[in-house]
Write a structure and sequence with these properties.
2 domains, about 160 residues
């Protein structure tokens, strides 16, 4: 009886080996050596200089900065989409107890405000240079009048 179990055991091992050996060989010799060595599942681009670091006549730098800007916008769009989806799923799950989702809603609102500050009301001319100018104008406004949305500071009368 022990010989039959031994024989059956050896037979199953040989069948498994015949099926597993080519798969293991292909994985170890072809797949693993050709894998990319970074742990991300998406392509990582190197960071390029931003638009404020480019010379005025360097069109290649302008183009790279604009492509980087558009990639960053797509990432931030997806972040907003995920945050909004999480809030909606929480609201559906909790039903009438939506107040349990307030931390998620606050996170989404903060991210939406930050997105709007950077990209909002840009219209068709959405590029790195226009976004940089928008940021510059906002900083000048805040220096003169205080944070946007708090109303204008009263100018002292020096007359």
């Amino acid at each position: 009886m022990a010989e039959q179990e031994n024989l059956l055991y050896r037979l199953m091992n040989s069948v498994i080996y015949v099926l597993d050996a080519p798969v293991t060989y292909v994985r170890e010799k072809l797949v693993v050596p050709n894998q990319k060595k970074y742990p991300w599942y998406h392509q990582q681009y190197r960071r390029v200089p931003t638009i404020d670091e480019c010379y005025m006549d360097d069109m290649v730098c302008y183009t790279e900065a604009d492509c980087q800007f558009k990639r960053d916008k797509e990432v931030e769009d997806q972040i907003l989409f995920i945050l909004r989806s999480r809030y909606e799923q929480c609201a559906v799950y909790h039903g009438e107890d939506v107040h349990l989702c307030d931390p998620i809603r606050k996170t989404y609102d903060d991210a939406a405000v930050a997105w709007f500050i950077k990209y909002g009301e840009m219209g068709v001319g959405l590029n790195a240079k226009n976004a940089y100018m928008k940021q510059k104008h906002r900083m000048i406004w805040e220096r003169r009048h205080g944070p946007v949305g708090t109303g204008m500071k009263q100018q002292p009368n020096n007359a």
